[in-house]
Amino acid sequence: MYKNSLIKDSDYKAWLSDLKELIAQGEGLHVEFKTSFNHEAIVSLCAFANAEGGMLLIGVSNDGNVVGIKEGKESIAVWINEVKNKTEPSIVPDADVRLCNGKTIVVLSIKEFPVKPISLQGRCYKRIKNSNHLLSVSEISDVYLQSMQYSWDAYPYPQAVANDLNWEKVSAFIAKVNAIGRFRLPNEPQEALTKLRMLKNGVPTNAAMILFSKENLLYNVHIGRFKTPSFIIADKMLNGNLYDVVEEAMQTIIGHLNFAFEITGKTTQRTEIPEYPLDAIREVLLNTLIHRDYKSSTDVQIKIFDQKITFFNPGGLYGDITEAELRTDEYRASTRNKQIAEAFYLTHDIEKYGSGFIRVRQAIADYPTMVFDFRGLGDGFVSEFRYTQQKTDMGKVVPVGESKLQGANNATASIKYADEIVELIKANPKITAVQMSNNLSISLISLKRIISQLQKNKIIERKGARKTGEWIFLN
């Protein structure tokens, strides 16, 4: 018996001790019934071996009726030999002949195989719930990498060399990692990536290229602002180094969100209340980009509606985790891209042990009607935030149709700041965003949002390079 299976030998013995109870429970993840031995019986054994192991009861109909068999030991030996000859690598099930309700049944049991996937005449199957699932090419690759404890992003990037990496980006990464203190990296960039196994004999891994490549690898992220599913108000496509994409995507999303203000304290200090909790948005964005299937040609898609944001990630759930388990606070996480996840862990952008969705649920707790949901969609995965009512201050909610977070306080504040921004630009066309933020005592995020609106309305324009350019007042 293979010892790495999630099913222990004692479990089989307990089940076999009371076949009537086992049959009464019906077919499931670890049990299937067949009235006779045939090709589909081998499919089930193959699927069990590629999952957590299981038991095939021959002589029992799908509805749990014990019909029995008449085959002798010679026939059972032929069955086992057929399973062995038709599977690659070969699997050999254990066979038990049992009496139930006065009739003979044969129990073929197989443990989880340590090196997966097992194929049956060129096809691979996996047990999911109470049925056998034919694996796609991508799923076969994932199952193999998992069983070998490898990940795709740890393999060398085809035809890449060390000079393909942006070493300034790598140096910035090293500085951030060392400042965080979770791990100490050498200051020399190539030595640091070698230590992280992202550089092997001078060849960057897939992860190193996705994180730090000089050239754009065209792993695109589409962000759209929708009025209806078919009416697009704005659309932006991002690509490049993954760390840069995360920050740019976050700023793009924030630029499409509404904000309310709460006036607190004797100094009339403003507290900004975003339409969605930004920590939760960032957590799902990171999850989408870090755990996407980079072997897929499909792009990440983020859609922003009036009362909903959806994140589509090419690549379904990885490993054996289920949607039901993800809805609990005790799920066991699996990582599709181990090196990429490790990098974001070292920069303190994520926690290593898969607590992201738990933190999302905690973050939306202060938003009374907000729902965080997710589901598999084809070969991908969709995460979604939606709400029916929204905050306008820290203690109240209002129907979205009445305010949409664009009440008098918000509109007045935005107009006031817009006027003040224009005056600052008129006085000093070379003023920076940071200087304006400090002068007005508002966050840089809010300032950039208002500037973006002024640019869209053709009130101001930016000319020249980011550091040496200047603002121009158009009206």
What keywords describe this structure?
24% strand, disordered N terminus, 6-stranded mixed sheet, 4-stranded mixed sheet, 17 helices, 36% helix, 475 residues, alpha+beta
Task: Describe the protein's architecture and organization.
The protein has 475 residues and is an alpha+beta fold. It has 17 helices and 22 strands. The strands form 7 sheets. A 6-stranded mixed β-sheet has the order 12-11-15-16-18-17, covered by helices on one side. Strands 1-2-5-4 form a 4-stranded mixed β-sheet. A hairpin with a 2-residue loop joins strand 4 and strand 5 (103-110). Helix 10 (278-290) packs antiparallel against helix 13. The longest helix has 20 residues, at 408-427. The chain starts with 8 loop residues before the first helix and ends with a strand. Mean pLDDT is 84; it is low at 1-8 and 398-413.
Question: Can you describe this structure in just a few lines?
Answer:
The chain has helices at residues 9-17, 19-24, 39-49, 73-86, 137-147, 167-180, 189-195, 206-212, 242-255, 278-290, 323-326, 338-346, 356-363, 400-403, 408-427, 433-440, 444-456; strands at 31-34, 54-58, 87-88, 94-100, 103-110, 119-120, 123-128, 131-134, 199-200, 203-204, 221-228, 231-238, 259-264, 269-274, 300-304, 308-314, 371-377, 380-386, 389-393, 396-399, 460-463, 470-473. The protein is an alpha+beta fold and 475 residues long. The strands form 7 sheets. It has a 6-stranded mixed β-sheet, with helices on one face. Strands 1-2-5-4 form a 4-stranded mixed β-sheet.
